[in-house]
Specification:
- This protein has helices at residues 7-12, 14-25, 28-44, 55-73, 96-99, 112-116, 118-136, 140-151, 156-163, 167-190.
- By secondary structure, it is mostly helical.
- Helix 2 packs parallel to helix 4 and helix 7 (118-136) crosses helix 10 (167-190).
- The relative contact order is 0.11.
- The chain contains 10 helices and no strands.
- The protein has 2 domains: 1-79, Rna Polymerase Sigma Factor, Chain: A (Orthogonal Bundle), CATH 1.10.1740.10; 118-192, Winged helix-like DNA-binding domain superfamily/Winged helix DNA-binding domain (Arc Repressor Mutant, subunit A), CATH 1.10.10.10.
């Protein structure tokens, strides 16, 4: 079965792929290039998406190869799980690529509810800013496991395979990550 994937379906996966690449590469420009190469490779794939896994999993598989290619070109070893550092992100980083296509048109227009209540939108933006701060405060390996599961959307067995941990360790780590995030959000957002 050779399924053709629409450009829209691929573009919808871009933010998740970018977060994954940024965790691995620690450089927003390089991560963006890796994601672009991944999406291009997916579009040009002669074998194509067969539907044996989710589209996201298939694209992350392609992205992993692009990251490994970059590391080889830079004569670097791909990062092991133990070598992960917490993801860093420049607060002044340009996020236009998340919202606009190469031709300058919107990836998707602004949600009408956002425009209906700008105050609620501002509070939501503030919340996500604080959430990012709390997530960055997690130990690096814990943050990686949490991001792979909750933001990238990998299944439990995929996270375990990707990080080389047991399922019991996965559940313990996820529980601790959720507790730490909850505590941080209670202090910095809910009780602020």
């Amino acid at each position: 079965m050779n399924n053709k994937i629409s450009e829209k379906a691929l573009i919808e996966q871009r933010p998740v792929l970018y977060r994954y690449a940024l965790i691995q590469l620690k450089d927003s420009a390089v991560a963006d290039d890796a994601v672009q190469e991944t999406l291009l490779a997916a579009l040009q794939s002669k074998i194509g998406y067969t539907g044996k896994s989710s589209l996201r999993t298939w694209l992350i598989g392609i992205l992993k190869h692009k990251i490994a290619d970059y590391c080889r070109k830079q004569q670097l070893e791909p990062l092991s799980f133990e070598q992960f550092n917490s993801p860093t992100q420049d607060p002044n980083e340009d996020h236009d690529a998340d919202f606009f296509q190469d031709n300058g048109s919107w990836n998707g227009g602004p949600a009408t509810c956002t425009w209906a209540d700008p105050e609620a939108s501002l509070k939501q933006d503030e919340f996500w800013s604080i959430y990012e701060t709390c997530q960055k405060a997690l130990p690096p390996s814990m943050a990686t496991i949490f991001v792979l599961r909750e933001l990238v959307g990998l299944e439990t067995h995929e996270v375990c395979h990707e990080t080389g941990i047991s399922e019991a360790n996965y559940w313990t780590t996820m529980h601790r990550a959720r507790l730490r995030l909850r505590e941080c959000l209670e202090i910095k957002w809910f009780n602020a």
